[in-house]
Amino acid sequence: xxxxxxxxxxxxxxxxxxxxxxxxxxxxxxxxxxxxxxxxxxxxxxxxxxxxxxxxxxxxxxxxxxxxxxxxxxxxxxxxxxxxxxxxxxxxxxxxxxxxxxxxxxxxxxxxxxxxxxxxxxxxxxxxxxxxxxxxxxxxxxxxxxxxxxxxxxxxxxxxxxxxxxxxxxxxxxxxxxxxxxxxxxxxxxxxxxxxxxxxxxxxxxxx
Length: 208
Ligand SMILES: [Fe+2]
Known about the structure:
- The longest helix has 23 residues, at about 25-45.
- The mean pLDDT is about 100.
- The chain has a 3-stranded antiparallel beta sheet, with helices on both faces.
- Helix 1 (about 25-45) runs antiparallel to helix 3 (about 70-90) and helix 4 (about 105-115) crosses helix 8 (about 195-205).
- It is mainly α.
- It folds into 2 domains: about 25-90, Fe,Mn superoxide dismutase (SOD) domain (Helix Hairpins, Orthogonal Bundle), CATH 1.10.287; about 105-205, minor pseudopilin epsh fold, CATH 3.55.40.20.
- The chain contains 8 helices and 3 strands.
- The structure holds fe (ii) ion.
- Fe (ii) ion binds near residues 35 and 173.
């Protein structure tokens, strides 16, 4: 998260077919090698002529959008958000999912949502309810309280005044090849590949 300009495309922490049958290999290639790469390239292009921003981290840029030069605010919001969101999304999945939350995060989910089942239901509702393209998130505030939110397009939750723990991409590019218009089925399958260890790490060590 300390990375600065020029930003680089992060490699996947697993093989392209590792999340089969839940997320297919072809989708992973398009999603990572084309869509994610485009966000990285367009973010770098936006920042190219602003050397005063070249020592800023991505999180700083996204937390300070309104202070950026007006000419690049939208490009950084869309492409910088795209880079951060996809880094978190791809890193937040694993072929070796524990299938249920672990450790302190598991306790917090039970505390704030009543049960893991309730959490899943509420999270799925947020992901299904996002009209058009966007994301659903599990985030924590500075007191460690959990909340589920959704964002449009490549927006980050609340200008990153909250800490992202877990997120699902509900842009059609994330699921259309395998699931076509069946977003609910995609969400149900995604629950099988969540990296709960990674999620707990983000809960215990907030990135913002
Ligand atoms: Fe995506």
